[in-house]
TrEMBL record:
GO terms for molecular function: DNA-binding transcription factor activity, RNA polymerase II-specific; zinc ion binding. Pfam families: Zn_clus (PF00172). InterPro entries: Osmoadaptation_assoc, Zn2-C6_fun-type_DNA-bd_sf, Zn2Cys6_DnaBD. SUPFAM superfamilies: Zn2/Cys6 DNA-binding domain. Keywords: Nucleus. It comes from the Eukaryota. This is Zn(2)-C6 fungal-type domain-containing protein. PANTHER family: TRANSCRIPTION FACTOR DOMAIN-CONTAINING PROTEIN-RELATED (PTHR38111:SF11), ZN(2)-C6 FUNGAL-TYPE DOMAIN-CONTAINING PROTEIN-RELATED (PTHR38111). CDD domains: GAL4. Residues 10-38 form the Zn(2)-C6 fungal-type domain.
Amino acid sequence: MVGVPGRSKGCNTCRKRKKGCDLQRPSCGQCIKAGLECAGYERKRIFVNVTKPPTGKDFKVTALVPVTPALVQTRSLSQSAFEERILELFWDGYMPDAPICSPRSPIMRYSNADWATTVRDLYRTDAALRLSLLALSLGTIGRRDKQQWMIDDGLKFYCNALTEMNVALRHPKRWKSDALMVTSRILGFYELLYGADDRERHGISQAESWEGHSLGELALIMQRTPEAHIDGHGHDLYASGRLHLVISHVKRRRRFPLSHPAWKTVPWQNVPKTPKDILIDVFVDIPGLLEDLDHMNSCKDLEEKELWRLALIKECWRVDEELNWWLDNLSPQKELEELATRGSNSPTACDVAVASIITLYWTICILTYSTLRLAIGTKSPELPERTDPRLYCTKIANIVDVFFHPSAGTFGIQSAPLPIGMALVYLNSYEEGFNSETKFKLVSFFGRTANNGISIGKFLMSTQRDGLKPKTSVELSPEGIKAKAKSWLGVVPREGPVCQPLRSASSQALASHRDDGFVTPHINLLAP
């Protein structure tokens, strides 16, 4: 668990010798090198009798009276101990073997796992948060250990958490608490990991249910205003939450409300931004590019369409400039080189964090440059090689295996769907990519089950089927997959209204934001 001091995971021999343990099982490497017998990792339990025996001349021994031990331990105490153990096992598997981190470590600079520390501080303060965390924990451990009763109980806790969430939203104080904001996030994580479409859903797909939780969390954040996220838990949860929130708007191709300048600046008045924060500042602008491309394609007036096209090209080159700056100044280039040298057979927790941030960067490149090329059209001169989305699809396919390694834990699995899904959408949009080796390599991860028993294949299939009926049974044909990918990317005009309003009035107001003077009639199409 990141940032939790005082919890040594070393073997008993290394702990006794006060040596650093490499945590290999069944015997650690340090003991093998030293020629010592490894005492294993099981902790001995010492029971101490603290009852003072009676003394004195008046003390008499009486016969023992049999008592039925029905309430030796109260139910609440027993349940509390069980819950603590379940949560401890979950956190141990969330990012296994992660070292205690300094602010400049790769984990703290690049991973999106820092919300976990905040949850540990808050989960006792709110019933909805506690129930949702238990649902996620039981679902994870049950699949890892193949315990069906834990999986079933996890689903029950999930349903109870939904009920408690609805109660909290009607409470005058609870609805704006940090605990409730992260509750919606955890419920979304549960859907992403375990909300399989083969469960009875009453017409709501797994992807739609996950998206609903994301939109709910976004609504809570926006009602709290940027000033509520300047310090403390509020800031930590906001900074770690933008990534998964913007994904839902990429999927919808609608401008993201948190791309407004106030939401990029006010929450960081007192806290410096990490490289992750700065890259997500770029990512939050991407849904706006997708929406503008759809608007351009839907324009019937040729003059207006040309103005939209030029403005979109200019915006894409602006994003390109920010991406290049981040890559040159803030990206984990050294760590990536070390990972490439060692290979991905035994990645560390730091490697997983590095892989998560660089695949996010490559995903942004796919979305930006595919939009740029569609806006420029096929008649333009050759563009720079860095603007070829196929390059980033290949890079993603060559590194995502890291996310399925045991050391990646649950955090790694959460990091996998976005880069895999976006790379597949692009490859499916043209014939050569549809039949490419890169595409087949990515598809192989649909059926991949991680060491902890989690699979993301059903969630990825749900996103493929989303918008089709019936949602629980449809099988996409190859031509259907190609057509859906082309439509989503904007290769062919999309059906339906382009400017569908967002679900909340505050989101709609911010989504309509655009800087003044966005139309520039004379633009160099090939360079920023």
